[in-house]
């Protein structure tokens, strides 16, 4: 049975609340549905309640912004329905799960990675203390004290909660009895996975949970974030270091397809060109392509071997910021680029799944990091921007060369001048981006200005002004250090003369 509630002329956020069970059925599902119905009426959302798996097809799912698994359990989708759900979410849609969402589709690897955990066991229902982490700036926990006591059924997970999640609340195992994980025990988190915006809380077993204003506020803000109404990261207008302390707090690693020449890995395709095939995936770096060298002050230098294509990818999305870093080349080069210039890249406004460009990188704008070409612009995977250029011919081929007085053209553009230091020397690279306008700066000199950043979607081009940051491994040894970022509310006035 399909139940739809909405508010005329209200916010268009559309949510599918799915509560099908193929295992244990929680009595709290009905109170949960009532709570979400009331929330939707108050917030002006359109919400659809269903337990019909046939809705999981491209046409029906396209009507929604957020998919909410309300205490689902067991194997509830067939293979085609799983593919439809995956396709839907990787287009930048939202997913919210409560409690038993981690006790669902546990044999579907992609779903387990989407959630970040899979149910294993639980003790009896009882009170426990949650330690709240507000450092991410997520509104889902902004209303909570640093420690909060809840009564619930506390899930243990089969494996440690995935490294790629951003933890908002951790269960204090010293405050309850029975089966426990015996390690750090996250219970509420959010993250971006394969293009989807994912929010999960282990709360919500009991019917009474859905009368607790603390949980209801958490779900409200989780839905807002998953739908794109709210952003999480509150970026300071003072420099924030991104390589200080534990790198896994700020960065994930995605490793692409090993080239046929890569040694020491099992099952490398003897015909692999380093692009086609199955990537090694998220936070799976058996060749240690990305290494962090920590100094006495807790600052890290990233050593990228380049042996396999890959990306150092920020956990957070950023918008309207000034990014600054230092980069220098190492000596080693690898197939399939032994005869090419040493190459890397600073990718920004990265959105969607990994693997959109060369089966490893996200859709993004690129500030090129390549020998002699630092500061060039490349558009990856469906992104583009407008750049003032003059057209010139190189080897009989037309090339767009940056010229502030030139006409606007979209797509890849070469810088007009070189300001790069000799190999082995540290170069300072800066990216300033605000409301779709960006500046590429190398060693204090503006290489080019870009405008109208956008991406191509099924509905045409839309603005592309926010996303993750990625640093490429691209078959060359390279080092990065002193990566820092701060928010801006305009392009700094000192750069106005470089704007068209």
Describe this structure in words.
By secondary structure, the protein is mainly beta. The protein has 2 domains: 3-227, Rossmann fold (3-Layer(aba) Sandwich); 240-498, Exo-inulinase, domain 1 (Jelly Rolls). It is 10% helix and 39% strand. Strands 13, 16, 17, 20, 24, 25, 26, 27, 28, 29, 30 and 32 form a 12-stranded antiparallel β-sheet that branches. A 10-stranded mixed β-sheet has the order 1-3-2-4-5-12-11-10-7-8. GO terms for molecular function: hydrolase activity.
So what's the overall shape? globular
- Supply Rg: 24 Å
What percent of residues adopt helix (DSSP H or I)? 10-25%
CATH class of the largest domain: Mainly Beta
The largest sheet is: 12 strands, antiparallel
Q: Which consecutive residue ranges, at least 5 long each, have pLDDT under 50?
A: 1-11
Mean pLDDT: 96
Number of helices: 5
What fold name stands as the CATH topology of the largest domain?
Jelly Rolls
Structural class: mainly beta
| Beta-strand residue fraction | 35-45%
Summed up, the domain count is: 2
User: End-to-end span in angstroms?
Assistant: 57 Å
Oligomer: single chain
CATH architecture of the largest domain: Sandwich
Number of strands: 32
Assign the CATH superfamily of the largest domain: Exo-inulinase, domain 1
InterPro entries: AL/BT2_dom, Class_I_gatase-like, ThuA-like
GO molecular function, one term: hydrolase activity
Domain 3-keto-alpha-glucoside-1,2-lyase/3-keto-2-hydroxy-glucal hydratase: 299-486
Organism: Wenyingzhuangia fucanilytica
